[in-house]
Amino acid sequence: RIIIVGVLLKSLATLDLRLTATHPDGAGGIGFVGGFPNAYTLFVLALSCNLGAAIAEHLNAQTITTTTYSAVMVVWLLITNAVLALPALFFTKPLADLQQRTLEMAQARATQYQIGQEHDTFKASICGASDDEISAGKAVTDSGVIFKAARNLSTVLIQRSSLLPVSAAAVLPLFAAGATQLPLKDLVSILRKLLVF
Prior knowledge:
Elements: H1 2-13, H2 41-61, H3 66-85, H4 92-122, H5 131-138, H6 144-151, H7 160-179, H8 184-196
Helix pairs in contact: 2-7, 3-7, 3-8, 4-5, 4-6
């Protein structure tokens, strides 16, 4: 199913999308796609429970060390996040193209607008613009808001916050398995390492 979703998102990313840099979601209007990993939270939780049970058995038998246990948690967290985040990266190119085009157009319009503002303020053109350029600049509206929106546009749909439920589902069963055998001090140290990721 994850592969099917990946293929679907790849095909959607190749469509002629009507994206706009000023959309309130900060992602061109397709920010909702970044939330799709949450659909797999229960699936990841089920897999993590199986892995947690295996780890609990090894900890009980003292066949793995604390270092190995923390490494397994980190690797498992990275695998689950990477597998679920990768399909959304297909939208990075369309969003980056949108950002580049919008910035270029907004900068060109901003130059025209500032030529008109400069003439209104100083009654002369310091940059040496012609009368046609000055009158054209006065007819252009300020594109500063669009420029700022384009500069702040997120070209990567998956954010840390959108992976939080999946990350919790991946880590909590393993953390519970460790709590059966390891001291709280070691578990807190492992949790700090995970929070860095």
